[in-house]
Amino acid sequence: MQYPEPVAKLIDSFMRLPGIGHKTAIRLAYFVVDMNADDVSKFSSALKETKDKLRYCSICGNLTEEDPCVICKDKSRDQNIVLVVEQPKDIMVMEKMKSYHGLYHVLGGVLSPIEGTGPEDLNIKSLIKRLQTNSNIKEVIIATNATPEGEATAMYLSRLIKPAGIKVTRLAHGLSVGSDIEYADEMTLSRAVSGRTEI
Ligand SMILES: [Zn+2]
């Protein structure tokens, strides 16, 4: 006996999400079957709006509904400093911490020879262009994750940026090796920013 077609489609869709195996996908699909119509409708429009309304900021690469994003537009933020992160979700983590008030740049990943990710696959060109055209920027903090790829990316960026006379620093203290910014608590992250070291 096969799943009714809409259920089969739903299972298939859930399985495309990271960390969702077949069994979990089945459980989620049948959960949706039992949800009330209103909740299902909210869920489906949230999915659709994510794709329809969001774009990447043309300056920093953050996910945004308006371009430039609210952070890039906010002139009250410290315009002298740019914090480089791997993903837009890392910005959310840093913002929650509330002790960093500079600008951001989202790489969209890290250099990874194994996965075939080279400099041209990341928002590196736009970062360099930004540094060249905006003389206000005096420091770049590299906040890639403390993984081998994150470290290699930090070193690569440092070699690229330093010759332009811009200070390059790296989040140092508190973040343990292999840890993601995403999972760091606010205290640790706050200490990591204030204790950053030059690379
Ligand atoms: Zn932006």
UniProtKB/TrEMBL annotation:
GO terms for MF: DNA binding; zinc ion binding
UniProt entry keywords in alphabetical sequence: DNA damage, DNA recombination, DNA repair, Metal-binding, Zinc, Zinc-finger
Cited SMART domains: TOPRIM
Superkingdom of source: Bacteria
CDD domains linked to this entry: TOPRIM_recR (cd01025)
C4-type ZnF: 57-72
Membrane-spanning segments: none
PROSITE patterns attached to this UniProt entry: RECR, TOPRIM
One Pfam assignment: RecR_HhH
Domain Toprim per the UniProt entry, residue ranges: 80-176
A biological-process GO annotation: DNA repair
HAMAP family xref list: RecR
Entry similarity comment: Belongs to the RecR family.
Protein role: May play a role in DNA repair. It seems to be involved in an RecBC-independent recombinational process of DNA repair. It may act with RecF and RecO.
Protein name: Recombination protein RecR
Organism, as annotated: Apilactobacillus micheneri
